[in-house]
Amino acid sequence: MSHWLELLTQPFIDYGFMRRALAGAWALSFAAGPLGVFLVLRRLSLMGDAMAHAILPGVAVGFLTAGLSLSAMTLGGLVTGVVVALLAGLVSRLTPLREDASFAAFYLVSLGLGVLLVSLRGTNMDLIHVLFGTVLGLNDPALLLVTAVSSVTLLALAGLFRVLVVECLDPSFLRSEGGAGAWAHMAFLLLLVLNLVAGFQVLGTLMVVGIMMLPATAARFWVRAVGGQMILAAALGALSSYAGLLVSFYHDVPASPAIILAAGALYFVSVAFGPHGGVLQLARQARLRRARLLESMES
Amino acid sequence: MVVGQPAIELERVWLGWRDRIAVRDVSGVFEQGSLTAIVGPNGAGKSTLVKGIAGRLNPLRGRIHLAVDVARRLACLPQSAELDLGFPISTFDLVALGAWHRVGAWRGLDGPGLDAVDEALRVVGLAGFGRRPVDTLSGGQLQRALFARLMLRDARAILLDEPFSAVDRATTEDLLDLLHAWHAEGRTVIAVLHDLDIVRAHFPRTLLLAGQVVEWGPTEQVLSPANLHLARHLCAGGLQ
């Protein structure tokens, strides 16, 4: 027992970098999971992915002008994230293109531009840092940034919760009540960009979406209520971070993919065993229905 | 509120969307406490007019004037509510949204507020359905829930666009009773309808629309064979 306990806790007791990694990944999970729940509910699951790539050119410009400077890359990412969100929204409003297609177009352009810009000056190693994060090398400013963003996100979500729920459920009702649906949508996009920008320090631009979407999609298989899904998504994200870091430590594999794979494992477990639409539960229901049908035929 | 005073006044209103003019030069008054049906062939501009009155579409020309209390407390049930039926919300919570004008984004419902939601559910025949997820309701039950939500709005004027198009006869009868109750309480009720039998049986006043006003007045007078023929002639579609 104590051996197991030691295996599970010792890396975090012995090594400061592991503690910092866990703190950063947990802070990110607590905010990203609940945001992901709203993306799933709005059927915009791929938008997180698109936005994560959209911040890349800004991060790259920050990197080109100031090297691996946290503030320059964060500011750059924030600016391009917001610009792309606005432009994609504008294109889908002014043209027949749907918002998801519009986002996809912008993110592909952004990804190409971002990789090109980073390659102009950086080495392959720098590119890998940006794409896959440096969770095991989090410094104080990065840790502060991610915890501050996480705190602001949770407070903002608490304030916007009901408006966001109604905007997902029945946007025309919110408009007729004079509710600020459009503003809530913009605030939500801003929170999304903020978390992705903070998250790329931890998991990298490619991986950060994983900690947002995988726990959120897994949570809906266990809980029905939106609030419950948000809490569970945060908890599943935190569990994935912990498990991923341990696997990374003991098996000497990169941390951020290990975290995302742990979240992926939880997702597959949820798809299989979740009581709300999980595969096993659906099969059991189908069996019961068939049995009832046969019973009614005999009687 | 004084019954007989104008609730909604239309002054030479033209409405359209994209490159199409749907409503031309409509003038008239919906009086306070009146119960009016808007009928007409497909493409007659009925839904467009409702959108205009609800403030979701600005007139191209003319003016739509709402009495002060109506403007403040106007409820609208659109034809195809943009409701996401897959959203995980209970019937009780959906109905409780009707109290948005009182609780807004942050306040909670107090005891009487919660009782009002239960009462609205009971009145529309959904007592005991409060905990049911919205995605398990039938079309008729969902429409009943949306009517319960309208009840909580406590609106002075209620606009309904094809409220009975997807519900069975029994539900239609129950919801018509509710419409009459609102009318008896002095609320202004305007409903876009297709079924002329329902209009003749339940609606004292009718606006027959065919892109323009064919006639607007007492139902029996408006729904004359000559008027219906003219409306059909003016629009490409057909009245049932």
Outline the structure in words.
The complex is a heterodimer of chains A (299) and B (240). Chain A has 14 helices and no strands. Chain A has helices at 2-14, 16-41, 45-54, 56-66, 70-94, 99-121, 124-132, 140-169, 171-176, 181-202, 208-219, 226-251, 255-273, 279-298. Chain B folds into 2 domains: 1-73 and 155-240, P-loop containing nucleotide triphosphate hydrolases (Rossmann fold); 83-154, no CATH class. Chain B has helices at 46-53, 68-72, 91-96, 100-103, 111-123, 139-153, 169-184, 196-202, 219-222, 225-234, and strands spanning 6-17, 20-31, 35-39, 61-66, 74-77, 157-161, 188-192, 205-209, 213-218. In chain B, the strands form 2 sheets. Chain B has a 6-stranded mixed β-sheet, with helices on both faces. In chain B, strands 2-1-4 form a 3-stranded antiparallel β-sheet. Chains A and B meet through α8 and α9 of A and loops of B.
